[in-house]
Amino acid sequence: MRPILLLATLSPCLGFAPSQLQPIASTSRLAAGDAPSTSALFLSSSDDEAPRKQSRFEGMQREPTAADLAVIDDMIDKMAAAKPYELPNAVSRAIRVVSSPRFFLRIAERADESDDPMEKEKLGALADNLVNTIQAVVSTMEDSLDERAKDVERVVKAASEPDTGEFLVPLSPERVDAMRKEMEDIDVGDLNEGFLSTVDSWMNKAHQDGMDGMVGIMQKALQIYAGTVISRARIQLQANVGAALTGEDQAAADAAAAAEEGSPASALLEKLLHIDTDNWDAEIRQGVAGEVTKDDLVGEVQKTMEGVILGLENGSMAQRVQAEYLRELVTRIESV
């Protein structure tokens, strides 16, 4: 039975689903120049195409489903019950969802539908508080976003040819490995919503400018991001559980978790998280031909979904991207 995940369908944001935004032919090139800044990579003087306003992340391009509304309602309930000093952190963890017109429209819908005067007042107060909180959060996030843009830039530049600075797509294994190294060098705390917001906006700009190859590179960056942060979260989760069960010092538990190989299925999943997704099928076939069964591997992914993905902020970009990544992995496993 296929595990139930948070997304109903795959989006093109990670480049898995069939899309018109496929990388251009291997002989094609994207001029990068020196690629020293975001403007050199993504700004265009062409105004022929109307700007594309929507996010490329699934769930931000369409009307919300019943499941989406349930997530939004859950966020509204939690924020309405939160203490004032807790609101900024809650907003910053899901800024793109909370600041969307759809979120405020849902608050208004619920206020109109409610017959309870206290509930109406609480929802009205939440809307007012959110406006002020979002303004404050956005203001404090500006410096952080500048730093995250530098992180994204380093990852993207690693995709360019070292000698010429050009981007050749599909990317060679060496360039994908270089992107992964840059990603792994970024502190775990910096691979946050600001990082993903930057990738999202750069991907939108690349799409506007007709740079389909660059869209593919940004998709590859998201795939590498997902594998990196999920692997780190799995290790941390294992360490936390170990420390709770044994009473060990957390640092000792962290070291033990990092060194522990775990089951064959766990080891195979870790390997899949650290390789190019283009090589998944071959690696899965080799793994299930040995001591790992498909059910074992799907079960390991399911444990990761429950332990990692469901612990993320509902509606956040991190949750959407990581959920899609694991959902695609389950699809690949089942198709082998």
Helices and strands, with pairings:
Layout: E1 29-30, H1 38-42, H2 66-81, H3 87-93, H4 95-98, H5 101-113, H6 117-157, E2 167-168, H7 173-185, H8 193-208, H9 212-246, H10 250-259, H11 264-273, H12 280-288, H13 294-307, H14 317-335
Antiparallel strand pairs: 1-2
Helix pairs in contact: 3-6, 5-6, 6-7, 6-8, 7-9, 8-9, 9-10, 9-14, 11-13, 13-14
Structure description:
This protein has 336 residues and is mainly alpha-helical. Helix content is 63%, strand content 1%. Helix 7 (173-185) packs across helix 9 (212-246).
Main-sheet strand order equals 1-2
Number of strands: 2
In N-to-C order, the SSE pattern is EHHHHHHEHHHHHHHH
Kindly name the structural category: mainly alpha
Low-confidence runs? 1-12, 17-61, 256-260
How many angstroms separate the termini? 15 Å
- Could you say which overall geometry the principal axes of the C-alpha atoms support? globular
Overall radius of gyration: 21 Å
Tally the helices: what do you get? 14
Q: Report helical residue fraction.
A: 55-70%
Q: Which percent band covers the strand fraction?
A: under 5%
Q: What is the quaternary state of this protein? A: single chain
Provide key terms for this protein.
single chain; 336 residues; 2 strands; 1% strand; globular; disordered N terminus
In short, what is this structure?
Helices cover 63% and strands 1% of the residues. The protein is mainly alpha-helical. The model is unreliable at 1-12, 17-61 and 256-260 (pLDDT under 50).
